[in-house]
Structures are given as C-alpha cells and as structure tokens.
Specification:
This protein is of the alpha+beta class. It is 54% helix and 31% strand. It is built from three helices and seven strands.
Amino acid sequence: MFRKFRETVVGLIVAIFVIGIAVGPFMAWFGWSDGQRIAQVLREGVETKAIPESGTRRTGRRSGTSYSLNLVWQTPEGARVRAEGLSISAGLAGQILSENRITRTSLNIKYLASDTAHPVILEDAAYQQGVNDGLLYTGLGWFGVGVVSLWLLRRRLRRRQRLAAQPA
C-alpha cells in the first residue's frame, strides 16, 4: 500500500516538473519580450499626456485583484488614439480609481508611433518591468528545476535497473 502511494506521489511530482519544463520557457519568453518592448518604448517612444477614460477593478476567486485602464490621447499629427485594457499596478490604481471612477484627469505616457495600442504609463513602468522580470525568472526557475529533477529521476531509475540486472 505504501509503495502504491509513493509511486502516485512520485508520478505527480514528475508530471508537475514536466509541465514546468513545457511552460517555463513560454513564461520566460513572454517576460523577456514584454520587458524588451517596454524598454524600447521608454527609449524611443513619443511622450504625451493621456486622458483616462475608464478603469476597471476585477477580483477573481483565486487570482486576486487586477486593475486596468482605457486611455485616450492625441498624436502630434492630430489623430485620436485609444488604448484599452492596459494593466496597471494596485498602487497606481489607488491613485487613479475610486470605486471604479477616475479621479485623475491625465497621465504621462510614452508610445511608439508604429504601435499605439501598447503605450507605457510612465508612473507604472517600473512596476511593469518588475512583473516581466518576475515572469522571466519564474519561467527559467521552473524550467531549471524541471530539467534537474528529471535528470535525477532518470539517474535513479538507471541505478535501479543496474542493481536489478546484477546477479544475486
């Protein structure tokens, strides 16, 4: 009975690490690529003031609370641009939102002329970079732990096979 329990637990642990090996690189890539995008916007972007049009607070059962904004601004050419569903930190949300109502009239943003759909709110850029760094390191960690764990498991299984193959 204990052997069956141990095999089930080991099987679950192996499954978790295999999932980590599969999902970890995607998490790392997403964190890295979004971090590169934010760095490029901060380096090369056009700075302007945007008007927060609306904001949303969402509370999930397990995922916690998340905040998002819809912004509107005008380009130097006079075109009106709208960006929807921009994720923001709880700290910035506390300054901007009060019971899902906007309390500020403008925010400083930067955007790439070629990609107006993804502006960076300057007051929240450090937080967004931190989130991306967290994704990068978490993804690399899951991948690394998964690879090392499977390597150790494989080594253990080979040792078991050698011992079983030895004459008694």
